[in-house]
C-alpha cells in the first residue's frame, strides 16, 4: 500500500481516529454486500423496495418472506475477520474515537470493539413496532423454526421486525448525533468498505474533513468522497486495513 509520505508520517501521531464501515468489511466473513457486483440489490433490484417499512407493516407476505430471510441469513454462520479485528486492536490501543458502522451484523462487537455506533441498528435483536420491546433475535427465530411464520410481540401482540433501520424509518437521533460529534472531533477519519452513497453516513466524511481531519477511503470502487481524501486505498480490506492499523500503531519515526 502506497500512501503519500506526509500522511504516512502522520499516522503514528493520530490519536483520535473515527472509522466508518460499510458492507465491504463483512464480505470476507461471507456476508454479501448490497451494491457490489454480487450485491443483494444488484442481483434482485426489487429487494430494496421490499425493505421499506410501509411494505413490511401492510403486507403479511412481505413479513413472512423477511422472517425466512432472517432465519437463513449468512450472519448466523459468520465470524469476524481480520478487518474487524484490526479495528478492535485500534480501540484497545486507545486510539479510536468511535467506530461508526452501517452494518447490522454485530461483527464489530463480536471482534471486541465496544465504541460502536450502529447507525442502521442491529439484526441481532428483534423490536416490536408497537411497544418497542427488544428481544434477542435467536429467540424469535426459534419461534419461526417452530412454525410461527410471522411471530407477534410476546407482550402486546404487535408486529415485530429486526431492530434495524428500514427504508422509510428515521435513524436514532442520539446515535447519529454521537457519530457527527465523532466525525468533527477526530484527527483521522477512515471510511472502509462503504460506497459512501447513503446519507447521512456518507456526509460524515465531509464533516470530518471540514473540521480538519485527514480522510482515508478504503474501498474497492470509486466513491463520491475520493476527491477530498488524503489517500484512496483500493487493495482488499482484509489486508489493507490491518496494514493501516499497524502503521498507526507503529512508533513515530
Ligand atoms: Zn409489543
From TrEMBL:
EC number, UniProt record: 2.3.1.286
- Domain Deacetylase sirtuin-type intervals: 1-251
Could you tell me which Pfam families the record lists for this protein? SIR2
Q: Which GO terms describe its molecular function?
A: histone deacetylase activity, NAD-dependent; hydrolase activity; metal ion binding; NAD+ binding
InterPro entries attached to this UniProt entry: DHS-like_NAD/FAD-binding_dom, NAD-dep_sirtuin_deacylases, Sirtuin, Sirtuin_cat_small_dom_sf, Ssirtuin_cat_dom
Q: Does the keyword Kinase apply?
A: no
SUPFAM superfamilies given in the database record: DHS-like NAD/FAD-binding domain (SSF52467)
Q: Is-annotated flag, keyword Oxidoreductase? A: no
Q: What keywords are annotated for this sequence in UniProt?
A: Hydrolase, Metal-binding, NAD, Transferase, Zinc
What highest taxon heads this organism's lineage?
Bacteria
User: What is the main EC category here?
Assistant: transferase
Which residues participate in Zn(2+) binding?
A: 128, 131, 153, 156
* Catalytic residues in the record: 120 (proton acceptor)
**The protein's name in its UniProt record:** protein acetyllysine N-acetyltransferase
Per the record, the gene is: cobB_3
